[in-house]
Amino acid sequence: MGNNESLPVRSDLVGLQPYGAPHLDVPVQLNVNENAYPIPDVVVDSMRSAVEGHFAGLNRYPDREFEELREHLVTYLHGVNDRAGRTVGLSPEMIWAANGSNEVLSHIVQAFGGPGRTVLGFTPSYSMHPLITTGTGATWQASARNEDFTLDAETVGAEVAEVDPDIVFLCTPNNPTGTSIGLDVIEAAYDNCSGIVIVDEAYAEFSRPARASAMTLLADRPRLVVSRTMSKAFACAGLRLGYAIAAPELIDVLRLVRLPYHLSEITQVLACTALEHADVLLENVDKLIDSRDRISDHLRSVGFTVYPSDSNFVLFGNIASPQELWQKLLDRGILIRDIGIAHHARVNAGTEEETTAFLTAVDEIMAEDPGLQLSSN
User: Fold this and answer.
1) What distances in angstroms separate CA 329 from CA 28, 173, 246, 309, one per listed residue?
2) What's the CA gap between 296 and 148, in Å, rounded?
3) Are 275 and 73 in contact (CB under 8 A)?
4) d(CA 84, CA 111)
5) Nearest 5 degrees, angle CA 306-CA 311-CA 314?
6) What span, in angstroms and rounded, lies between the C-alpha atoms of 286 and 210?
7) pTM exceeding 0.90
């Protein structure tokens, strides 16, 4: 950040750091949990054809209610729940979409947070949750996860009851740990407060076997909202399309805080086309899960602590200096994430070739400097 001492910046923003990871042009980029596989040619061709007919109409505003996109998302989510063995009644009125799930979360916190209100999260978790919270003037309160980064219903229920927050964030699978939570944890959070409970399921498609989504809890829970994204499993990070599922009355409130016509015509067309090709786009999910599991098994076998992951990334520990490991990998053209947890780092699953390059580099680095790993005693 530049020198802003002469600007009348809000006092609660002074000293904060903006969200972001190093964006370095290296051959193997495994640091921001992107889908390593590009969009298949058949989908690219369909996207190109779909957009072609909309250029002449860009003098008009887009559909601010993104009705066609809502229909496509409902169809996709019915399939998601059916594959998990759960039938969930969804309708377009229960869907909200925005420029990435970050904007979806921002809309929710703008509507239900703000000055004088408290938002509770269980850390370590997604670092944008507190930034979105403080951006609205609400107070962020963090509660620590268990030592193995899991959450249980009893602990969550007790903490929520004590804090009585206006908003609770639950992330499953959790970023940066990859760990999932049970539906009982979500129920405990909901039952012990009168506020909004947000379940961030950005990485849910990488759970194998498929876990039941928090969508299955929506009936008779008007304060529950589930957030998802097309950035990860759909390989559409550059498209910027996130969405939420909640009771129609909660969705209706979000209209009060969204900017006018916040989803462009092109974004809506591309997102609809991607959803029409969901089966093709999701074919690479299993490949990424194979890479994730291969990374987990290898890192564990050479002495690192590895946490069970339902996402497309792996958190590993027992590192003497994460920054030194990060630099040694970067020197070999491989970028991972130092996520600020002492003696831990995170790496996302890559293509088979990228995964091999990472694991080979780890072996080379450890052979050169065994001291990079903490003593096991």
Assistant:
1) 10, 26, 42, 22
2) 16
3) yes
4) 31
5) 25
6) 12
7) yes
